[in-house]
Every structure is written in structure tokens, then in C-alpha cells.
Specification:
Keywords: Hydrolase. The protein is about 35% helix and about 25% strand. By secondary structure, it is an alpha/beta fold. It has two domains: about 240 residues, Ribonuclease Z/Hydroxyacylglutathione hydrolase-like (Metallo-beta-lactamase, Chain A), CATH 3.60.15; about 140 residues, Flavodoxin domain (Rossmann fold), CATH 3.40.50. The structure holds MU-OXO-diiron.
Length: about 400
Amino acid sequence: MSIHNVPEIAEGVYWVGSKDWNRKIFDSLIPLHQGTSYNSYLVKGKERIALIDTVNPGFEKEFTEKLSQLTDIKNINYLIMNHAEPDHSNAIPLIMEMSNATLITSEKGFKMAQVYYNIPEERIKKVKDNDTIDLGGKTLKFIDAPWLHWPETMFTYLVENGILFSCDFFGAHSAAGLYDSDVDEIISYAKGYFGEIMMPYKNMGKKAIDKIENLGIKMIAPSHGPIYRNPERILEVYRKWTVGETKEKAILAYVSMWSATERMIKTMAETLLSENIDVKIYNLAIADFGSLAADLVDSRAIVLGAPVVLGGMHPVAVYGALLVKALKPPLKYGAVISSYGWGGAAIKQALEILGPTKIEVVGTHEINGPPTPDDHQKVTEIAKQLAGKIKQ
Ligand code: FEO
């Protein structure tokens, strides 16, 4: 058996997760630059032992070896399922088979544990908000925190040590380090993760933060990425992100085949910059959608550049617009510009996609062929209007 690193993050509390350096994409959608981790934690009380979350498929052997370094797996009394998604719960059946543990779930998780993992009802204990379990000198308190990121999610709080086990919430996709202080760019990773995973549920995130504000948390131990020994570092930004606090910043996301749309986007960018608006430009054909998701977290405006091809809006621009709509960013204002060869269609299509969002479209401009000086003038005017709105 290999000897694994199972650091003790507080007295009697061990990290027993896995680091997945090779993972390059999550949800078949978002590229990962530093892999990710699936954090699991073993909590040893004087009388009982609890395991909080498990690991992604493929890491079972390493996981059980790590646990065996700390205890006989048969001695685990409770297995806490903070979230039913397989990256945290896929090893639940294995641990249940190797022990007589009781699975602890939220009310909604009760059914999911049966459906996803075939855990018999009699081995599951449902917990409600503020319910506790005493491990002997260590008290686990359960906090309802639904929709972060599925309906059944909950937090587990280790009262005596002030550790919040928050599963996906406060996470980051990075396999690096154990603690936040080990990863230089941690807040940037956390921001991309928030944009991809939590932004659509930010209202639920705000409620969860309000609920935990007065707990006196000393450490936040999520199930992806590093553990925050300085919880205020992540709480401070989450307070802003969950209420949709935006900056004087615009995303210019476009596709271009023969540069007509791109030239208008550049005019738009120059004008916005001259108005002191922060500008982030994404050519959607080659863009990193993780970076785009991160910038959506605090941008106030978006400009979509979408040419016409094959009788409609360019499919990559359609994808970009649909992604923006799905992630529910706090964008307030927008504009759409387009170029076509022999028939316009993209503006109408873009407005249909963005219609259900709360984005106020300040202006549109659709041209036939390459932009003329008049077109650049028109784009400049739209950019100035947009800048005015952004600065309001
Ligand atoms: Fe990391 Fe929603 O699972």
C-alpha cells in the first residue's frame, strides 16, 4: 500500500480528498487550467468518526487507502452527503459497503441517495436545518443551503473547530496547494468557478451567506480547491458576487469571418476605453469560456458581435449568447452589432435569445459587407451611449 499525504487540518480533522491534475474540462463545458480536487474530510471525535463527502469516480482505491491510514473503514459511523453529484458522492456505495455507517443527507438528498447510489432507506438519516450529531467532543451541525449547486445541497459545520464544510460553494477548480495561501491566483480561480457553477444560483448563495455570517467561522473547507484558513478572503468576494455587484466594465464577445464585425468591435472597444470603461474582448471562436464566465461575474455590459452565416446568426455566436443567458450574469446593458453578405438575420436572432434576460439593449447596428466610415461613426455613438449607461 502506498503512503499518502493525509494532512491534519485541525485537531482530529483530516483531508482525505484526491487531486485530479489531469482533468482538462468540467461539465463538458469549462476548461480547467490547474485540474481540480475532490476534497473529502475525516472527522474523529472521542467516540465516533464521520466522513464528509467522498471523491470522483476513478479515485476509489487512493481514497480507501488514505482512509485506512487513519482508521479501519469499518469504524466510520457517519458518512455525510453534502451534495449528491458524483464528483463528491460516487464513492458512497463503496464506503457504505465497507462499513456500517449511517448516511446523513438533507431532506431532498434522502431520495437522491436512493436513486443515484441505491442506498437502502433504512441506512439513511435525514437531517433538517440546525440538526446536530455529537461525535464526542466534536459536534457536526447541518445547515440547509439548497441549490448550491443542486436542490439537495447542505453545509456541515464543525462547531468546536469553527470549520464550514461547504462542498461546491466557495470552491475553485485547482488541484494546487492545500490552503488558499498556497495558491497565488486563488481568487481568480474562485471567480471563474463562481461564474460557471454558482452565478445562476447567486440569490440562493446570498441567502446562504446571510445564514452563516454570525457562526464565527474560522476555516472554510470546500470540496474543490484549497481550504481557506482566512475565511474572510473568500467571504468578502462572495458577498459582492452573490448580490451581483458590477464594475464599470464591458465584455465584447464576437465572431468574425472576414473582419467586418471584428473591425466594428475594435471601434466599440476604442470608444469604451476612451470613456474609461474597462474592456474585455473575447473572440468566441477561440475564447476560453472559463475566462469569459469569470468576467461575466462583475461586468456591467456586453456587446455581442454576431455575423450572419448560412442564413442565420453564426452558430458560435449563438452558443456564446446562449451561454450568457444560461449563466445569469448581473449584466445590465448590451448592444449587438452584425455584418451580413446578402441578408440580415443575426440582430433579430440575438435579441430573441437575450430577450428573457434583464439586459437593456442600448443599441444595435447591422451592416451589409465591410463597415464604412459612417458605420464606424454609428458604432462610436452606440459605444458612447453604452458608456453613459455603464457610468450612471
Ligand atoms: Fe462539485 Fe456540483 O459538484
